[in-house]
Amino acid sequence: MTRVALKGVTKRYPVNTVSKRAKLKKAVLNEWFGIKRKEQNVKSREAIAGVTFSLSKGESLALIGRNGAGKSTLLKVISGTLSQDEGKVDVVGRVGGLIELGAGLDKTKTGRANVVERAAVLGIPNEKVVLFQEEIEQFSELGEQFDEPVSTYSSGMKARLGFAISVTLPFDIMICDEALSVGDAKFSAKCLAKVSELKKERIFLFVSHSMTMVQRFCEKGIVLDKGHVAFMGVARDAVAYYENNILYLKNSVHSEEKKGSSSEQDKEGNPSLVRSKEKSSSSVRHKGDDKVVKSFLDPLIVNNEKVVNWDVGLKKSGGGLVFDWDIVFADAFYDHSQLRMGFPIFSDDGQMMFSCTKERFKPQEVLGSDFSGKLIIPSHGLHPGNYYCVVALYDGIEPILRQLICEFKVGSDGVPKFGLYNVDSKWILN
Description:
By secondary structure, this protein is an alpha+beta fold. It contains 9 helices and 18 strands. Residues 250-292 have low confidence and may be disordered. Residues 258-287 are annotated as: Disordered.
């Protein structure tokens, strides 16, 4: 019966801390004088540690984690290209991979000859090989070049042949490291449809950084963190855990300041209110004294000739945001007719997601030197991730206040998101 079962599997890689000079000295002593010295200072790191799970026919599992988490190492252990240092690996069935699709092809032979060679390794009877050849030729869409040497193929043609071989030959266990599809949009769609069909008949192991693809093709998920299993469960829950606890985890100045305080937190672990210590001793609010390392937030300025004091905060309210501000203008700055204000929101990679702006204020809205108010965004629609809030105040075209308010995180519920952000919508079906 086809199965993949791992119990307490650990794989270590040696980390040699011996200097090049020490290695040369050892080689000289050994070669010239026959003196052999024991290797010293050889350490090891665990690429995967204590991994345990089991799969049977028709089950699909996604391996999720950051680069270096141990995903590819785990696939190699399952495929047999690496041996574990501890634990037990029980794999029953033919293992085929969508990993390096062009790897293993003999460049001196034709595409057809490569299919025959790969089928022979799997022990497929000759009478069945002909049928697989025709199917692979048709799927790869190589045409006449199927009977030409692989050395004449482009990299895309090699990938298409490799993919066609992997999804056509009768593998019981299919492992995939990102390469779910190749080629143009039309061929890529055909690849995805084929994988979706085959995973019902095989054990399917999938490594990907696309959480949408993970949920589309896998029922189960394992989150790896530094080689250890951090979470195991249904794919949607695994994605939510990864996005909330690993992918978007940040140690911002605000999260550091919140430690030990009694400020209220929401279900995503964020402060429900980012406030000034001048107003509340149990919470935090940006007052312009934090070091900003994100270049896309520049320029950050305060024109002290026009702005004497400022205090801006953010409160997360359900799926929305509430900004409140209290700004004190200098007495000499009395003409507020050209005042403009905005609150841009930036993603972690510097893209402005949106900005709520007000181009003009009525005279009764800005009285004297005190300027305070609130901006309510009922639903921000932001996807899971880290975001930066900025306050921007202008006198005409002159910036008089532009400062970072705070960094905040939008948590994940594991549901796939598309586009830049969600908008309020209502479906009416007839």
